[in-house]
Amino acid sequence: MIMKAVFRAPTKRSAQLPIRYLLNRFGCEGRRVDRVQRLSIYSSSNAIFLRTLDQSVTASSALSDAAAHWNTRFAGDDFLFGTEPNHWLRNHVNAFPRGGRVLCVADGEGRNSVFLAKLGFVVDAFDISSAAITKARRLAATSDVTVTYQLADCDSFSWKPGSYDGVAAIFVQFADPALRSRMFARIVESLKPGGVLILQGYTPKQLEYRTGGPSNIDHLYTEAMLRNAFAQLTNLELKVYESEITEGTGHCGRSALIGLVTRR
Ligand SMILES: C[S@@+](CC[C@H](N)C(=O)[O-])C[C@H]1O[C@@H](n2cnc3c(N)ncnc32)[C@H](O)[C@@H]1O
Question: Which residue ranges form the domains of the chain, and what is each CATH number?
Answer without folding.
Answer: 2-55 (no CATH), 87-263 (3.40.50.150)
